[in-house]
Design goal:
- The protein has a single domain, classed as Maf protein (Alpha-Beta Complex).
- It has seven helices and seven strands.
- It is of the alpha/beta class.
- The radius of gyration is 17 Å and the shape is globular.
Length: about 200
Amino acid sequence: MKFGIMSNLILASSSPYRRDLLARLGIQFECVTPDVDEAAERLSTKDPVALARSLALKKAQVVAALHKKAIVIGGDQVIALDDEVLGKPGTEAAAKLQLARLAGREHAVITALAVVRGNEVEEFADVAMIRMRPLSTAEIARYVALDKPLDCAGSYKIECAGIALLERITSSDQSAITGMPMLRLCEVLRQFGLQVP
């Protein structure tokens, strides 16, 4: 959802998942893609929670530097299996390999947000634990063909058919798994003076 350049709320993201979550609130906002070298950051930071928080903050700060009076939301999500960060697969073959590794195991979905306006900064991270059920090669192939989760770290879309791959979710905020912890974000936006329904 993009409104005029004078919007006082900016989502520093090109993610359609984050955009759709924020649009649910009925607040006008603009989307601006931040110029952040995520690959370099991923190489320099090994801790998954620290990585997600660092990227979320950098994205917000880069956009906030260009829009001094706006409230800017930056976000990042990291999937970690035994402290190893899993990236976006990019290809069907890579997606099938990721799902084979996750099958029958628990992994962490770390979703970090940073909200910045000038010198004001609020940042936080939500960690959800997800256990995937055991999957056969045929089930994995059918799922990848159906959802085409090539742009999703972990190679599944929980908001689509990917929910059928899971056995258990332990989370304080299910919206975080889709891309933004909305419960905490609403609280922070109210602190920044926005009217949130």
